[in-house]
Design a protein that fits this description.
about 40% helix; binds ligand PBG
Length: about 325
């Protein structure tokens, strides 16, 4: 039966009706807030290419975390901006490092808030690559040991979930083994399983000072043309013991997100990355888009495509909106 009997508009006639038949909804439970932490006291320094986002000292990060927890945000993910960088990124596994300190302070300030730590070396290496360099390229196997050490020190500090974002082969298995050998069987791994070599990370690299000093990340992050390879990456990480997987960036890879979710039906996250944030902010600042509407529409798109949760710089702000809606 079709027109004139069938009229889909009948179910769009009022907001109440639309609300009743809506297939996908956004909830505060879906949102994870990334935080950039640095050394010092009482520091809150705005990131030029990410207006509204800040580099926070540990004390300020703990305050922010407590506020997020109050608003119902379930988790934060921490990125460290260390004082010292070197060839191997040794500040990453320093037990007194900025991320380790922030994990402890946040766990004290907001015990029920989940703390996820990003595990990667690019913020800590002087050359800005995600691993150690050998013969002009990032050495996969040498890097694995350092990632495992970093993950272990995060777990020892109290991290609930470890999120490796480096894209080395075998890192989930190596990290899982190291955590288990040290008694951290319950510390979960959220793997950045499907991470593309993307121009959308530009503002993040500004924030973290992690732009590669030579070359690019194309020998370890994925080629944007590949979707079948995403299935292989996700499969390997799940086999190696990932508890959850992620697809990143977000809006330009919704097809991949939907494919990965439909194929494995495992907990799958999306990351609305820094460049996506910056584009929305820039257009909104110019009055070219309705900021709130576009933010909510993009977050809903991730859910519709199959994301179980979303890492987004808007988590805290959107939590406030959703709360006021009730
Ligand atoms: C670390 C890492 C990056 C992001 C998350 N973890 C940067 C990169 O790979 O260059 C990007 C996050 C964002 O752009 O918001 N490897």
């Amino acid at each position: 039966m079709s027109f004139p009997t069938d009229r889909p508009r009948r179910l769009r006639r009022s907001e109440t009706l639309r609300r009743m038949v809506r297939e996908t909804r956004l909830s505060v439970d879906d949102l994870v807030q990334p935080l950039f932490v640095m050394s010092g006291q009482n520091v809150r320094r705005e990131i030029a290419s990410m207006p509204g986002q800040y580099r926070l000292s540990v004390d300020r990060a703990a305050e922010e975390a407590a506020r997020l927890a109050d608003w119902g945000v379930p988790a934060v993910i921490l990125f460290g901006i260390p004082e010292h960088k070197d060839d191997s990124g040794s500040s990453a596994w320093n037990d007194e490092g900025v991320v380790q300190g922030a994990v402890q302070a946040i766990k004290q300030a907001a015990p029920n808030l989940l703390v996820i730590t990003d595990v990667c070396l690019c913020e800590y290496t002087s050359h800005g690559h995600c691993g150690v360099i050998s013969q002009g390229d990032v050495s996969n196997d040498l890097t694995l040991k350092l990632l495992a050490k970093t993950a272990l020190s995060h777990a020892q500090a109290g991290a609930d979930l470890i999120a490796p974002s480096d894209m080395m082969d075998g890192r989930v298995a190596t990290i899982r083994r190291t955590l288990d050998e040290n008694g951290f069987h319950e510390t979960a791994i959220l793997s950045y399983a499907v991470k593309y070599a993307s121009g959308f990370y530009g503002p993040f690299r500004d924030a973290a000072g992690s732009t590669p000093q030579f070359g690019d990340r194309c020998s370890y992050q994925m080629d944007p043309g590949n979707a079948l390879e995403a299935l292989r990456e996700a499969e390997l990480d799940l086999e190696e013991g990932a508890d959850m997987i992620m697809v990143k960036p977000g809006i330009a890879y919704l097809d991949v997100l939907a494919l990965v979710k439909a194929t494995f039906n495992r907990v799958t996250a999306a990351y609305q990355v820094s460049g996506e944030y910056a584009m929305i902010e820039a257009a909104a600042h110019n009055g070219w888009i309705d900021r709130q509407r576009v933010i909510l529409e993009t977050l809903l798109a991730f859910k519709r495509a199959g994301a179980d949760f979303i890492l987004t710089y808007y988590a805290g702000e959107v939590a406030g909106w959703l709360r006021n809606d009730k």
